[in-house]
Amino acid sequence: MRRIAVLATAGAVTLAVGMISFALGRAIPVREPVASTKIAEPQLVTGTISSRPITAQVQSQASSPPSVAFPPVASTAASLMLDAANSAPTRQACGNAGALGVARVVEIDTAGGPGFGFEQFKAYDFLRDHEVVLTFDDGPWPGNTLAVLKALADQCTKALFFPIGKHAMWHPEILKQVAAAGHTVGSHTWSHVDLSKLTFDQAKEEFEKGASAVQAALGTSEASFFRFPGLRNPPEMLAYLGTRNIGIFSTDMDSFDFKIRKPEQVVVSVMTKLNKRGKGIVLLHDFQHSTSLALPELLAQLKAGGYKIVQVKSKDPLKTLAGYDEAIAKEFGGGTVSARPVSGIVRTVAE
């Protein structure tokens, strides 16, 4: 009897193991995730510049993980996977795991000359809570702009630059570094004069000459973005920029870094206003030395405060006018706008 009981027990165990193996061998159905319902954002259809809804002017570009190197394609399925990976927008790998980075990239349709920045234009509020657009005016400038670029690179983040035409022609090699780092480049007039104090023809020339200078310095087309010096925008120039399909950037908050000489005060100025408003387009100056010193700490505090950086790009590049392109070429000469810095062309061999 004891032997029979043992045999019965062994048989039961064998049967149980077989049943478990059979169950594990079957395909286990996976429940598909339920698609979340996207709530349509309200469309703003009134504005000082253009009356198009915000979704027609500002589009988010889906962010994606860094590109992956795939092995040689060995099957149709692998080929489709490779094509899908290559067609998606990619980001450059960031060496700083805790960097501020770029949370979102938006593309702006500048047809009709839309305006952005609540200081003057309240039609198109495309930023979400705790989102920030960093903008820098009046460069490029030796030392300061390069320090700003380094601080941005250390945090793997991007900004929008509005260079002065004269500065761009004086330091084209610096402006090329701005573009090469992946930042967006607009324009900020030829000589930073107050356009509201000029005749229309003079103001038009300041804009067009500045845009042509930036393009000549870059050696390629710039974004179709513009910021008025001192944020002074005469109505006739607003209308003209609309015909040129130029997006106009004001600001949500001015750092006043051109008045502040201490880096720590620049940081306090920006963070105080951001914490009060919760988001915004921030106006800074890469021309200012205090700003170049303040930026590393400012970016660190933005990260600590939960703020996210949005990079803006224009749907279409700015198309400069041939007459002003020729005027810039004549004034500076073709050899002036060189890819090499001055230090690479002229050096002191004796003093």
Task: Explain this structure.
With 351 residues, this protein is an alpha/beta fold. The chain has a single domain (87-332), classed as TIM Barrel. It is 40% helix and 12% strand. It contains 12 helices and 11 strands. The chain has helices spanning 2-25, 54-57, 76-87, 144-154, 165-170, 172-180, 200-218, 235-243, 263-277, 289-304, 322-332, 342-345, and strands at residues 58-61, 104-108, 115-116, 131-137, 160-162, 184-185, 225-226, 247-249, 253-254, 280-285, 308-314. Strands 1, 2, 4, 5, 6, 9, 10 and 11 form an 8-stranded mixed beta sheet that branches. Strands 3-8-7 form a 3-stranded parallel beta sheet, covered by helices on one side. Helix 9 (263-277) links the parallel strand 9 and strand 10. The radius of gyration is 28 Å and the shape is globular.
Key attributes of the depicted protein:
single chain; 351 residues; alpha/beta; TIM Barrel; three-stranded parallel beta sheet; 12 helices; 11 strands; globular; disordered N terminus
